[in-house]
Each structure stands twice: as C-alpha cells, then as structure tokens.
C-alpha cells in the first residue's frame, strides 16, 4: 500500500538584473488545481533562459507552484486553503502553515506581487484589486494609484474590489451564528485574520499586488492571459522593454465592480436556482437559491453574482454579490 509523501520544498526562480529596479514576485498554483499560471511562468522562464526575453533591471522572482501538496493532489487545497489566514504561524499546524513560513518572508522582500489564479465556472478573466488609500483598521494602504495602474495594464477589462471588507462582514455574521465549516481547523473560519491571502499580506508588508483570475480552469486561453499579464507587469515596472510585452491597448474603460455582500451555505441541501457563473446579472428580489428548509435566497439589489460555489462546505462562502463601483481608477 503506497502512501503519499508531502513535498519538502518550494521551487523559486529568481532573475536579478544588473541595474537596480523594482522587485516583482509572480506566484501561481496557490490553489493546486489552478495550473494556467504554472504553464505561463514556465514559458516566461524559457524565454529568459534562451535570451528571447531580456531583464533590463530590477528583480523578477517566480514561484510557479506555491502549494506543491495541493498541486500534487490535483485539487484546490492540501490540508487547508493557503489563500486564507496567510501569515507566519508561531507553531505550524498544517502543511499550508509550513508554506507560509517561507512564502510570507518572500513576499515581504518584494515590492509588487502578481498572483495568478483561475476559477471553476465559465466566464471571462478579471482582476481583483485592493482598497483605495486609507488609514482604516481593516486594510490600511498607501499604493492605490500604483496598484490600479498594474490592474489596468494586464489586459482584462473587468476589475473587482472590496474583497476584504466584504469578507470581514461575512466573518462577523459567521462568528455571531457560531457556524464553522465541518473541516479540519474549522476555527479558522472565525479567525479575524482568515480573509487575508497573498495580496492582502503583501499590502500589510508595505508592498502592493493584484490577483488575476485568468479564466476557467480548463480554458486553453487562460495560459495566454497569464503569460501576457506577466510580461505586461514587467514592462510597466521597467524590467523589460515595452515592445517585448505586447502591451495592452485599452479600448473601452474597465468595468469596475465592488463586492458588497457574501452569502454562506448553511446546509448541504442548500441549492442554487440555476448554474450561476461569475458576473451573471441579477435583479433586486430575484431568486438566487433555496435553503434546505425551502426559504428563498433573494438578491437584495440589482448587481452581479461573483464566485458562486455549488460545492461550498457548510458555513463557508456560497456566493458574493457585486454592484458598480464609484471608484475612479485614474484618480
């Protein structure tokens, strides 16, 4: 009987320009079954190694498989979600804690992060953006303009903001109801730090970064979306020549949406009204789903569905709701 061994290292590649410049970190497979970023990073590495692409200045660090256990198993998580509760643990409780012990210092050493992901349902690529500059308690930040420039240069014309503040809303609601997921370390879903993932941790260390959702997991175009995003990020920061990056030529202004509500799954028999995909439009009062007791889940306002997860565990996020954002990314 064979037993699966846990990976014992992370594979990190670094290219150091001979002239000083920004330090860019690109990560992929934070969720192990999201592989388009892995393939895109390998392509960029091949171009750098062959001389087809030249690093002019600064530092480029590439982490193609951030969660090797989840990647080895071909699933989203190893022992838990690496993109939640991301911080160096005092005492490691699981495999993802051990990754964080290496990943968090790596992020702190860099100025900018591009985190490459994909998603389960069908839909077009989009970018997850952080908050405006603020000195609040949830996610204080001082690089909103630079982060917005990064988000808008990548190619996708849909940008979503409001993640951590909306997640914190759900967290408070979950804690009040004392509902945790029936999974190992279910206490994490009640941890005030649980909404912090890669980009949130990057911002907490004085840098900035975005999450690029490159498309559906199996979409053959997602790999190219990821590859171009890496090159465009490098060009924006001056690490490579602009002509090497197939620079994005903006047409219509980006659609900016703001997450404002998260709805948890309360029971295994909760079901969606239809097979929702991210950014499906809903009208106020429209039926989104049905609880196990027959009660309807209705849209509180006109807007869009984001991150619907028909496989969500009890006590975890079932879907998010978004509406148009008043934010001006050029301000």
- Following the backbone from N to C, one meets helices and strands in this order, namely EEHEHHEEHEHHEHEEEEEEE
Helix content: 10-25%
How many β-strands, per DSSP?
A: 14
> According to CATH, what is the topology of the largest domain?
Aminopeptidase
Q: Mean pLDDT across all residues, rounded? A: 91
Secondary-structure arrangement, i.e. CATH architecture of the largest domain? 3-Layer(aba) Sandwich
- Write the CATH homologous superfamily of the largest domain: Zn peptidases
Rough shape? globular
Strands of the biggest beta sheet: in what spatial order? 1-3-2-4-7-5-6-8-14-13-10
Describe this structure in words.
This protein has helices at 36-50, 68-73, 95-108, 144-153, 163-177, 198-204, 222-236, and strands at residues 13-16, 23-28, 59-63, 112-119, 126-128, 158-161, 208-216, 255-264, 271-272, 281-282, 287-290, 296-298, 303-306, 317-324. With 331 residues, it is α/β, with parallel strands linked by helices. The protein folds into two domains: 13-256, 3-Layer(aba) Sandwich (Aminopeptidase); 260-324, OB fold (Dihydrolipoamide Acetyltransferase, E2P). The strands form two sheets. Strands 1-3-2-4-7-5-6-8-14-13-10 form an eleven-stranded mixed β-sheet, with helices on both faces. The protein has a three-stranded antiparallel β-sheet with strand order 9-11-12, with no helix packed on it. α4 links the parallel β5 (126-128) and β6. α1 (36-50) crosses α7 (222-236). The longest helix is centred in the first third of the chain and has 15 residues, at 36-50. The protein is globular. Residues 179-185 have low confidence and may be disordered.
């Amino acid at each position: 009987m064979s037993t699966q061994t846990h990976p014992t290292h992370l594979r990190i590649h670094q290219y150091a320009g001979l002239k000083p410049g920004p330090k860019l970190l690109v990560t992929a497979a934070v969720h192990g079954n999201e592989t388009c970023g892995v393939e895109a990073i390998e392509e960029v590495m091949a171009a750098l190694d062959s001389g087809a692409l030249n690093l002019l200045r600064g530092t480029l660090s590439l982490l193609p498989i951030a969660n090797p256990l989840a990647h080895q198993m071909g699933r989203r998580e190893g022992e838990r979600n690496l993109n939640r509760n991301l911080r160096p643990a005092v005492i490691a409780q699981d495999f993802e804690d051990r990754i964080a012990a290496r990943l968090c210092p790596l992020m702190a050493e860099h100025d900018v992060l591009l985190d490459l992901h994909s998603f389960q349902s069908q839909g077009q690529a989009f970018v997850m953006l952080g908050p405006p500059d603020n000195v609040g308690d949830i996610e204080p930040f001082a690089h909103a303009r630079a982060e917005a420039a990064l988000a808008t240069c990548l190619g996708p014309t849909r940008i979503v903001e409001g993640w951590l503040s909306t997640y914190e809303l759900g967290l408070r609601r979950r804690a009040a109801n004392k509902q945790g997921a029936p999974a190992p370390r279910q206490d994490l879903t009640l941890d005030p730090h649980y909404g912090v993932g890669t980009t949130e941790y990057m911002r907490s260390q004085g840098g900035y970064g975005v999450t690029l959702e490159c498309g559906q997991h199996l979409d053959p175009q997602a790999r190219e979306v990821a590859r171009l995003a890496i090159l465009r990020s490098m060009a924006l920061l001056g690490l490579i020549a602009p002509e090497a990056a197939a620079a994005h030529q903006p047409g219509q202004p980006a659609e900016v949406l703001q997450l404002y509500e998260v709805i948890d799954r309360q029971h295994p028999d909760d079901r969606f009204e239809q097979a929702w995909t991210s950014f499906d439009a809903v009208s106020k009062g429209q039926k989104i789903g049905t609880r196990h007791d027959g009660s309807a889940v209705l849209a509180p306002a006109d807007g869009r569905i984001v991150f619907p997860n028909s496989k969500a565990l009890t006590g975890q996020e079932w879907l998010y709701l978004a509406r148009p954002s008043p934010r001006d990314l050029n301000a």
